[in-house]
Design a protein that fits this description.
single chain; transmembrane; transmembrane helix; transmembrane transporter activity; EmrE-like; membrane
């Protein structure tokens, strides 16, 4: 595998570290008085300010026309992301980091199902690659259910109290919103190839939505304060790294490798979040979480095996194809061409 082929993998692995960092940032900021609405508002506002000049500069020669119809579609995508971020932030506050990350592994299952429904993924159940992806998706969901429903004995004791049932419910909504966001983003990228401009408008719209929610829901002016400095540092990390950089990497990878490729990297965050949660927050490590996480990882690698086998078949077909312009076309472009 050359460096060009490895970049989407490296990007998605880095995103797992960033997402765990985001959990830490949310917990730290909200524990010091910043609310879920103001946190998302500040984070996306900062991301929009960063992306406004950079996105239009980088796409100055390749930018398609920005129409009202396009802005409406981006607004719908932004609504899904806003729901995911706000609900997810609430869930993160009431669950351990390892639990939150484990439940988020429902995203591959939801995304695969939606991708098959909307024909972004091929579903030939006679194919070993499709069977591997389907079985891996089911196994991952079973693992997530074990993490949620079965605790077992605690392997590490702490005094921290969490609301697992409400947290699991909110995280499921987060997963559904995130999956729908990935799928709708994939469709939009078929029509508008300037990825960073899409990310800018999404951040801009989410900032407007949560700004309005903050004004309505938060009557106390102290909710807007960025002091002490830990709140400001959390916002800086969330806005620059968590929103601007992370979402840009995700959209770039999505355009080149498809929606399921993005989703199946979530299980890699389990180990990272478990270690961080135990060290920083003193989270409880239950036997059920360990067993469920192992099952989720098995499902993850089953899906990845199916994806790699499928990609190899595509690569072999391209090598024997005489249509050279299609050989180098991004994945979503190929999908679009087959649907015309």
């Amino acid at each position: 595998m050359g460096m060009k082929e490895a970049l989407p993998f490296l990007g998605m692995v880095s995103i797992q570290f960033i997402q765990v960092g985001m959990i830490v940032a949310v917990k730290e900021a909200t524990s010091h008085g910043l609310t879920k609405f103001t946190f998302v508002f500040y984070s996306n506002s900062l991301a929009a300010l960063i992306l406004l000049p950079t996105s239009f500069l980088l796409h100055r020669s390749t930018r398609p026309p920005i129409t009202f119809s396009l802005l409406c579609k981006i607004f719908v995508i932004s609504l899904l992301l806003c729901t995911s971020q706000v609900v997810g932030n609430v869930a993160v506050q009431i669950t351990p980091a390892s639990f939150s990350t484990a439940i988020m592994n429902l995203v591959p299952g939801f995304t695969f199902t939606l991708a098959v429904i909307f024909r972004l993924e091929q579903a030939d159940f006679k194919s070993s690659s499709t069977l591997a992806k389907s079985i891996g998706t089911i196994v991952s969901i079973v693992g997530a259910l074990i993490v949620t429903l079965y605790k077992g004995p605690s392997l590490l004791m702490t005094a921290t109290q969490y609301n697992f049932v409400l947290g699991a419910f909110l995280l499921t909504i987060d997963c559904l919103s995130a999956s729908a966001y990935i799928i709708t983003q994939a469709f939009l990228l078929m029509q508008f190839g300037a990825e960073l401009i899409i990310v800018f408008f999404v951040s801009f719209f989410v900032a407007i939505m949560t700004g309005i929610l903050s004004l309505v829901m938060e009557r106390d002016p102290a909710a807007w304060s960025l002091l002490p400095s830990v709140k400001l540092l959390s916002i800086l990390f969330s806005g620059i790294v968590g929103s601007a950089i992370q979402v840009s990497i995700m959209v770039w990878s999505l355009r080149r490798r498809g929606p399921l490729f993005i989703a199946v990297f979530h299980p890699l965050g389990i180990v990272i979040s478990t270690v961080v949660g135990i060290i920083i927050f003193g989270d409880i490590l239950y036997l059920g979480s360990v067993v469920g996480s192992i099952i989720i990882v098995i499902g993850f690698y089953s899906v990845m095996w199916g994806k790699s086998k499928e990609q190899k078949m595509i690569t072999d077909d391209e090598e024997t194809s005489s249509e050279s312009p299609r050989e180098k076309a991004p994945l979503l472009q190929n999908i679009r061409e087959t649907q015309v």
